[in-house]
Amino acid sequence: MLHLFTQYSHDDSPLVSRTFGGFQQTEHHSTKPNLVLLHGWGLNSGAWHSVVEPLSEWFTVHTIDLPGFGMNAEHIPEPYDLSALCAWITPCIPEQSIVLGWSMGGLVAQQVAIQSPRKVAALITVASTPCFAEKSDWHGIKPTVLTAFEKQL
Predict the structure, then answer these.
(1) Contact indicator for 54, 20 with CB cutoff of 8 Å
(2) Which of 40, 65, 94, 145 could form a disulfide with 34 if both were Cys (CB 3.0 to 4.6 A apart)?
(3) Which segments of the chain does DSSP mark as H helices, in order?
(4) CB contact at 8 A, 20 and 61
(5) DSSP code at position 69
(6) Could you report the per-residue pLDDT of 62-88, keeping only the tens digit for each?
(7) By C-alpha distance, which of 1, 13, 11, 6 is closest to 86?
(8) Mean pLDDT value of segment 28-36
(9) Do 112 and 91 contact (CB within 8 A), yes or no?
(10) pLDDT, tens only, 87-126
(11) What is the 8-class DSSP label of residue 135?
C-alpha cells in the first residue's frame, strides 16, 4: 500500500494534519473534493489506514488526529470539551469539505457543521451518538466495566 501524504501545520491551531491524494493540482487547488476523516475517542487517524488509499482515488483525504491523540498527543486544550476541540479542529478543515466523523469524531464534526457551516459541504457520521452505559432499556456496557476502563486510562 502506498500512502503519499503531505503534513500540514495550521496558523490558527496547534494541530497538525495529513493530506492524501491531493496531487492532481491546478494552481494550488486539488481537482478532487476534500474529505476530512475524524477518528473516535481513544484512537488516532491510523484508524483510517485501510480506507485512505481507496478514498484517495476520488477525494483529497485529510486526516486530523484529535487533540490528545496520535500526532497531536501533546496538544490538549483546557478545558477538554467540545467547544475547545472544535476551535482547534476547524482551522484544519478546508472550506466546503465532506466531513466524516466516527464516534467522538462525529460529535466534533456535527458541532463544526453547526458553528462553521462554510467548512462543511456534507456531513457523515458513524456511531456518533452512542450510549455506552447500560440502562434499563439499553444493552450497553455495565457501569463497573466502564469504571474499570476509566481507571486504566
Answers:
(1) no
(2) 94
(3) 49-56, 82-89, 104-115, 143-152
(4) yes
(5) S
(6) 999 999 999 999 999 999 999 999 999
(7) 13
(8) 82
(9) no
(10) 999 999 999 999 999 999 999 999 999 999 999 999 999 9
(11) B
- State the CB neighbour count (10 A cutoff) for residue 35: 24
Give me 82's grid cell: 467540545
Beta bridge partners of 25: 30
Cis ω before 79 (30° cut-off from 0): yes
Contacts of 148 (CB under 8 A, 6+ apart): none
- Provide the 8-state DSSP code for 139: -
For the chain, strand residue ranges (E) read 5-10, 13-20, 25-26, 29-30, 34-38, 60-64, 97-102, 120-126
Backbone angles phi and psi of 47, in degrees to 5: -60, -25
CA dihedral 7, 47, 108, 21 (to 10 degrees): 40
Q: Return the half-sphere exposure (C-beta side, CA atoms, 13 A cut-off) of residue 35.
A: 20
Q: How many residues does the chain have?
A: 153
Triad 96, 97, 99: Cα angle to 5°: 140
